[in-house]
Amino acid sequence: MNESVTHMTETEPQPSGGADLERELHALTLNQALVDFEIANARVRDLTERLIEAGEQVRALKAETAALKVAFAELETLHHAMRSSQAFKLADRIWSIRNALKI
Amino acid sequence: MSPRTLLAVLVYGGADFVPRCVESAARLTSDDTHVLVLDDCTPDEEFCRHTAAQCARLGVGYYRSPRNLGVTRNMNVALGRAIDAEYDYVILANSDTIFPANLIRSLVQVAGSDHDIASVTPTSNNVSIFSVINKDPDRHLADVRVVDWVSGTLEEEFGATAVDIPVGVGFAMLVSVPRLRELGIFDPIFGRGYCEENDWCLRSHAAGYRNVLAPGAFVYHMGNASTTKAGIIPQGQTTAWENEKILDLRYPEFRSMVDDFVSSGTMAEVSRRAEHRLVTTAARERGYELEVTWLDHGHDKAGVRFVVPPVGAPPRVTASALGFEATLTLPTPHVLDELESIVGSLPRLVTLFDRGEIAEQLLEDAAGRAVDVVDARAYPERVSTGGSPRTGSGV
């Protein structure tokens, strides 16, 4: 970095002189950088917590989905068995005849 | 005691436009107004030396950040400085701009009209939906004398009128320092820039404050020059889309606020008044020419031009000056009389390119009056030159 450039603030008529202005703005920039760092850290912590919470929710939802899939599969098997029984087939035929005769 | 204002110009390269921006800003320096150029560590050291020297010569503050901060953080340097040095107002400005002589007076007057005003944005050729359209701003407006004239003319029209807008635009935005202390500075989450001023304005709006447009102040804005150069957005893009998403997440009502504003017709009326005032004032001050034609024969011509179709009731005149255009709907077919009433003077030259009732009426009305008429129609008929006959050239 060319120091002659950053120090060319000697002649401006601000309330504080050029060198003072540079010193003040250096301090301001540094201070704001530190504040920005704290904000960024706080955001990372906040986002990490939310990510962890979201991850736990996803795990819970996945477990629930898996359990529901198992229950569904059992019910589907039972349903298929019922539809395949002689009693169901007979009842189904009777209903078809009734519907055809409009009884 | 007059309010103290800091005008902070944010710079990152731009040898083509920064010098004229700084010159226009330096004129505004006074006991109550200080100008500070904040160079975001431009890597071109020749540029930095030149800019620093220009600032020293003009008596303007110059600070080069030791490392590149991005637009958001560089703006925060300005805001922080305004708070620490106890200014009343701070104006954040891009460097691809030219400031008018009445900038500080106009914006401060608007800001001071209501303590609930958090930000004031001047109008411009390029300020998002708050623009006054200009056909070729780089050709017509990139001159401080023109900007002074445009802004002064608009100040005559609008005075210290404050138009409520959804958000300000950071190309040249005045921020109230008391509001800044209360609401905080810009959020660094917007990284290298874009939408940070919108976020602040929406934050202020949520706290019950107003963001307003000052149509009585006009700043020329080249547009995207400083941000494209800094690589904040790719060439051809107009915003940083990832930052827009943050706005949408934080303020779901924002887009409907903008839609409501656009639908209200407020800006259309402001533009109409601005264009009318600019064109008629230019005509009054510089004189104007009138053409009766279906086709615009000289849309690239300099000067103030009024163009009216040869038929049509009521007559609709398209008036243009310095790239601004206004439509004047005249109540009677006596175009000369109506224009004299609006502008305050007759056109210095009338050219008839096409036939029709308006052309015929014009010829009749021009007889015996101090106006040159050139009949450039096919089969030219009579012409007059302030009472003396003059032959026109047939087309």
Tell me what the structure shows.
The complex is a heterodimer of chains A (103) and B (395). By secondary structure, chain A is an all-alpha fold. Chain A is 83% helix and 0% strand. Chain A is built from three helices and no strands. The longest helix of chain A has 67 residues, at 18-84. Chain A is rod-shaped. Chain B is an alpha/beta fold and 395 residues long. In chain B, strands 1, 2, 3, 4, 5, 6, 7, 8 and 9 form a nine-stranded mixed beta sheet that branches. In chain B, strands 13-12-11-10-14-15-16 form a seven-stranded mixed beta sheet, with helices on one face. In chain B, strand 11 (305-308) and strand 12 (316-321) form a beta hairpin. Chain B is elongated, with a radius of gyration of 24 Å. The interface between A and B is medium-sized, with 28 and 29 residues.
Write down the overall mean pLDDT of chain A: 86
Largest beta-sheet details of chain A: none
Mean pLDDT across every amino acid position of chain B: 92
State the secondary-structure class of chain A. mainly alpha
Oligomer: heterodimer
Order of helices and strands of chain A: HHH
Beta fraction of chain A: under 5%
Chain pair forming the biggest interface: A-B, 28 and 29 residues
Q: Can you give the helix content of chain B as a percent range?
A: 25-40%
Can you count the helices of chain B? 14
**Secondary-structure class of chain B:** alpha/beta
- Low-pLDDT parts of chain B are 387-395
Terminal CA distance of chain A reads: 98 Å
